[in-house]
Design goal:
5-stranded mixed beta sheet, single chain, 14% strand, 9 strands, Spore Coat Polysaccharide Biosynthesis Protein SpsA, Chain A, alpha/beta, elongated
């Protein structure tokens, strides 16, 4: 039977985080049936083995193991292509869901003008972020019950939703198209998708009566701050080039602005220490150019070594053929030697037998000679 919803989850290392997410998915009532499609982007820890065992014990779970990290947009597209449900869910592996989260989100898609919905959360980059009063996951469910009950049936229109948890009809996804894979490892593919949805005349809703806990960019957190910032800059440029407009930072709820200003100030201080002067920028450019030059030299050297290795492999294969031929000849000669040895043994047996017969004849001849010698002596 086809499930009502298809959940697509991307994994890349962070096994403990993934386990928390899966535990919440299968221990808490989603409010409707679903299939789960997990696409692993070449994790280097024990995630692939765990996912294989998990799928064996959970019907309705598909696991795709990629040989390389294809990035966030491509990995999610890969999972979406396998989906069969009426509703399509993109869910990060670093979230913990709450009771009836899925049915609560799907309910708001009853309006045909709504193209995509997502929940409120403790960690995001826009108005879906709310203030929370819990300190750990043990108290999170109680907070979620209180908050969602106080905001039952409420939702508001929002410009974009991060793809940590979004739901849309699968037919709508086919209409809009897959995530844009030009954004590589990820960032700005969700901004891009939100624009495409609104461009097609649909609304995007943030649902106040569904809450999920978000641990916060588990894969991106493994990048150092400089790599993260450079990925942000490069993908923002791709976004602006595609849409021909400047990207605008997202808004936050008024009660959260003071803390967000503090976060921005800390970020600005870090950027100042990293790139405060033109000289620093020039040094960074020189370093990048040097690294690129070194990389090109390494690639050229690698190419030469690959050629040499290929030549060695050809020589090895040739010598292997010669050795195999010589071994075959040696085996044939050993077989011939064994046959000769058997013949020699047989001849030696015949010689021994004939030697015995000859010794017997010599004995008889000696006896005859002795007898005739006696007779001749007495005859005289």
């Amino acid at each position: 039977m086809t499930s009502t919803a298809s959940i697509v989850m991307l994994t890349y290392n962070n096994l403990k985080v993934t386990q928390l997410c899966l535990d919440s998915l299968f221990q808490k009532n989603a409010g409707m049936d679903f299939e789960l499609i997990v696409v692993d982007n070449a994790s280097q820890d024990e995630t692939p083995q765990f996912l294989g065992q998990f799928a064996e014990h959970h019907p309705g779970v598909q696991v795709v193991l990629n040989d390389t990290n294809t990035g966030f947009p491509a990995g999610n597209n890969q999972g979406a292509a396998l989906a069969a449900g009426e509703y399509l869910v993109f869910l990060n592996n670093d979230v913990v869901v709450t009771e009836n989260w899925l049915s609560g989100l799907v309910h708001h898609l009853d309006d045909p003008e709504v193209g995509m919905v997502g929940p409120v959360t403790n960690s995001s980059g826009n108005e879906s972020l709310i203030a929370v009063d819990y300190q750990d996951l043990q108290d999170m469910d109680d907070f979620a019950r209180r908050y969602t009950a106080a905001h039952a049936g409420q939702a508001f229109e929002i410009e974009m939703l991060a793809f940590m948890c979004v739901v849309l009809r699968r037919s709508r996804f086919k209409e809009i198209g897959p995530l844009d894979e030009r954004f590589g490892m990820g960032m700005f593919e969700d901004d891009d998708y939100a624009l495409r949805i609104r461009q097609n005349g649909y609304r995007i809703l943030c649902v106040e009566d569904v809450f999920i806990h978000h641990m916060g960019s588990a894969s991106f957190s493994r990048l150092d701050r400089y790599d993260y910032w450079m990925n942000f800059i490069n993908n923002r440029a791709r976004f602006e080039e595609k849409w021909g407009q400047k990207w605008k930072p997202h808004l936050y709820r008024a009660e959260l602005l003071p803390q967000k200003y503090m976060d921005l100030a800390e970020g600005a201080i870090w950027l100042t220490t990293q790139m405060s002067t033109d000289e620093t920028q020039r040094e960074l450019n020189k370093r990048i150019a040097s690294l690129e030059e070194s990389n090109s030299a390494c690639l050229a050297e690698l190419g030469e070594k690959n050629k040499a290795l290929y030549s060695y492999q050809e020589q090895t294969e040739a010598w292997a053929g010669i050795i195999s031929h010589l071994q075959q000849e040696a085996n044939e000669k050993n077989e011939a030697i064994t046959a000769y040895q058997k013949q020699i043994a047989a001849w030696q047996a015949v010689i021994c037998e004939q030697q015995a017969q000859l010794d017997e004849l010599r004995a008889k001849l000696a006896e005859i000679q002795s007898s005739w010698t006696w007779r001749l002596t007495h005859w005289k």
